[in-house]
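REQUEST ID: PR-0412
SUBMITTED BY: lab tech R.K.
PRIORITY: routine
TASK: structure prediction, single protein chain
INPUT:
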Amino acid sequence: MDTTRLSSKGQVILPKSVRDARSWEVGTQFAVEDVPEGVLLRPLKPFGVSTIEEVFGCLKYTGSPKSVGQMKKAIARRVRERHGRGRY
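STATUS: complete
OUTPUT:
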C-alpha cells in the first residue's frame, strides 16, 4: 500500500503507481466527494472536440426564425415568471 501526506497548501500527491494504473496524466481533473469511507476522487471525462457540422441542427425548430430581440424578450419574460413563483 502506498501512502502520501497533505501539504500545507492542501495538496495531495497521488503515488505514481496509482497514476500509472489509472492512466491519469498531468492536468486530469477530478470530482471530489466526501463519502463515509473517506474521500472519493472521480476523474472528469471532458467532452471530445466537436465540429459545427456534428452539432448543427441537433435542436430542431419548425417555427419561423426569431430575432435576437425576440429571444431576449422571451428569456426576460420567463425569468420574471420564475421569480414570481419564488424560483431563483
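NOTES: The beta strands are 30-35, 38-43.
REVIEWED BY: pending
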